[in-house]
What we know:
Layout: H1 2-62, H2 64-72, H3 81-99, E1 104-112, E2 115-121, E3 136-138, H4 141-149, E4 153-154, E5 158-160, E6 164-175, E7 180-190, H5 191-231, H6 242-259, E8 263-270, H7 273-280, H8 282-300, E9 306-310, E10 313-318, H9 323-338, E11 352-359, H10 365-387
Antiparallel strand pairs: 1-2, 1-7, 2-3, 4-6, 5-6, 6-7, 8-10, 8-11, 9-10
Protein name: diguanylate cyclase
Enzyme class: transferase
Catalytic activity: 2 GTP = 3',3'-c-di-GMP + 2 diphosphate
Amino acid sequence: MPIKRQTKAWKRNLFMLLLLVVGASVAMPVYYIFSRTQTIIIEETQSKAINLAAAMSAFLSYNIESYRPVSDAEILVEGSDLERSYLAFNEVFRQVKKQSDATFIYTSKYLDDQTSVFVLDGEDPSSVLFSPFGSRDSMDALELETLVLGVPTVTGLADDSVWGTYLSAYAPIIDNRDKTVVGLVGVDYSKDHMLVRYRRVGWILISSFTFFTLLITLALYVLIITIQDRSGIDELTRLGTKRAMMKSLRMVFNEARKSNYNFVLCMLDVNSFKAINDTYGHPVGDSVLRCIGRALIQATSNTKACFRYGGDEFAVILPETTLLQAQEMKKNMEEEIGAITIPELKGMKISASIGMAEWLPGITVETLIDLADKDLYVQKQKQKKATL
């Protein structure tokens, strides 16, 4: 039915609008939280990298008598004591790397202001990423600062044309016997390592955002629909109010103009209602109105089409119906109303006069109501004459 279709469309549009507004409202703080979380993850990774680098530099400084000869060597002769020391230190670095989540862990020494030389590497020697003893690498400013000044440093995420995007921490290896900087320990964390954490946090935030947005949207939607429904429902009869009737009538009117079909407006007035109130009291009159409301719903099988227009007047909208077809519905309404039994009336029959008007192209809503009212007046006059 057109009313139902337009009601569904209105509710769907309302839900989508609320979803958009709530989503936009929630998206900004979620974006801020995600951005802040990215910063926290980088800061935590920097702290972890610098702590690991400092721990390994302290280990090598403690074993400086074994490490410094390896670091100072130009080459390592196979089978020599220096090679055995190198292999032992490398094994320690491999074990530390396995037990930590660092991407790379290594040591290097100063060659010149642009170049460093690898000494130890925690990578598996069979890996293409392994840096053999004595291999060279370009040196960034913070790495140079650590080697020259002997101070720990840590970078943010930085791009390297060879290694990719990494966060690096450097800690100096100091020979406490003469306070010289022998080299440094480098700890790298790749961007991919942090992306795993970003995605995990992102998934949690997106899931929470989606759930929270839907929850708030549904709550607001239900609240608005409830308020809307209650504002358009007559408390006594539970039918739509005059305001609701006018809204529905205009919806049907607009749909009829687009789809080129007719519809009928019925206006009802309870016969002798004033006499019922005066004789039996208003509580009984209220019972009559409630029963008529139920009778109209029973006759039309459509709660959305029946309205209490005001006082003892009712209205029924019959979409996609001609005046001829509406006669059968009028008969059903009269029968349902006539079947009402209220003990307090002591057998008195309830009846209602029903006026009808058919909408045709060119007729306005106001004209249609006026035509239905006029027909109602005619029907009431007939009813009076019939009772004389």
